[in-house]
Amino acid sequence: MTDLPPPPVKGCREAPVLREFGQREVFCGLTGIIWLHRKMQDAFFLVVGSRTCAHLLQSAAGVMIFAEPRFGTALLEEKDLAGLADANAELDREVDRLLARRPDIRQLFLVGSCPSEVIKLDLERAAERLNTRHAPKVRVASYTGAGTDTTFTQGEDTCLAALVPELDKTDARELVLVGALPDVVEDQALALLNAMGIGPVRSLPARRLEDMPAIGPNTVFALTQPFLGETHGQLIRRGARHIAAPFPFGEEGTTRWLRAIADEFGVPDDLFEKVTAAPRARARKAVAAHAEDLRGKSIFFLPDSQLEPALARFLTRECGMTAVEVGTPFLHRGIMGPDLDLLAEGPVLSEGQDVDRQLDRVRAARPDLTVCGLGLANPLEAEGLTTKWAIELVFSPVHFYEQAGDLASLFARPLNRKRLLKLEAAE
């Protein structure tokens, strides 16, 4: 077995959880389109929503709607919302125009920006109708990205969960990596697995429709993102089996994630060591370059992305930080359990959000670093608290060995900035 630090005497898997039910401060699930449309190269995401939704995507993506080639908004006017127009007929016309203009589209996602009761349109039925109409050239699916139904990263989860029931069946023994990763990061993971002789390996989502995995009773899957609870459930219902492991953040998380897959496929210890030794050493060195700035510092996670437990594990075990509170929108123990096993007892675990109460706890604790959403960062900075934008941890390449140092640096930078500002003020 590869040498790894032992788990803590007592982890947080069975720790009590403070459940919050109050005002939330999170990004809308529609923002998942920003990274999904880059990953799925022959897909188009058509948001069925209002001008507010169009402005959100425009602002969040930094481009004009339709200026980026593979997402856009079908605007609902007042007569649509009032139920005075045949929204289905209008949607069909919009989709026909889009597909005629863009013959390269192989996957079309109808993305609801509001519950069906609000937009007066059942997108699931619409997708079924349009799928029959445009198959087999185009596969049409639907999911919700409504901010009232989903948190920031759940847009990806609902998208992938919508794909699973339509995936082909197979009896082959295959590994599926689940979760959208930047291509360069995914390629690193595939190269490590291939060097161990593990395969065939598929990805969900795949870059193109023809590369989508098939699922069956001999399929095993490993999650690369912690926020895929619905997709996890859909895959299990299809008969696939989950390989539970800590998430591949940092040197230890990546090694334990790879080790769990290697054990599943019977990879010998000496081969595992040969494949991982060099990248592990690089990861340790890269993390150590930033750990000195983080060691002994306290950190408070407000709930945002569901990455929080895995990141807390990385920062406490590999960077020497102390977690005061680890808040997450949803705490799925079946998915996050291996990371909670490695997170030593001590921090408060909270699930859900009540902004006012959580901000009171932040102010009482005065942590060295608070990880939070964009809407809370500036007010906390104005109070003298140092913050880290949670959204940056989703948009930045942070998985696996080669990105371990970059992940540590994302937390070190705001602390270093504050230190430099103090030095300048003293001068």
Automatic annotation (TrEMBL):
Catalytic activity annotation: chlorophyllide a + oxidized 2[4Fe-4S]-[ferredoxin] + 2 ADP + 2 phosphate = protochlorophyllide a + reduced 2[4Fe-4S]-[ferredoxin] + 2 ATP + 2 H2O
Keyword flag Calcium: no
Domain (Nitrogenase/oxidoreductase component): residue spans on this chain: 28-407
Cofactor remark: Binds 1 [4Fe-4S] cluster per heterodimer. The cluster is bound at the heterodimer interface by residues from both subunits.
Subunit details: Protochlorophyllide reductase is composed of three subunits; BchL, BchN and BchB. Forms a heterotetramer of two BchB and two BchN subunits.
Family to which this protein belongs: Belongs to the BchN/ChlN family.
PANTHER family: LIGHT-INDEPENDENT PROTOCHLOROPHYLLIDE REDUCTASE SUBUNIT N
HAMAP family: ChlN_BchN
Protein's job: Component of the dark-operative protochlorophyllide reductase (DPOR) that uses Mg-ATP and reduced ferredoxin to reduce ring D of protochlorophyllide (Pchlide) to form chlorophyllide a (Chlide). This reaction is light-independent. The NB-protein (BchN-BchB) is the catalytic component of the complex.
Protein name: Light-independent protochlorophyllide reductase subunit N
Taxonomic placement: Bacteria, Pseudomonadati, Pseudomonadota, Alphaproteobacteria, Rhodobacterales
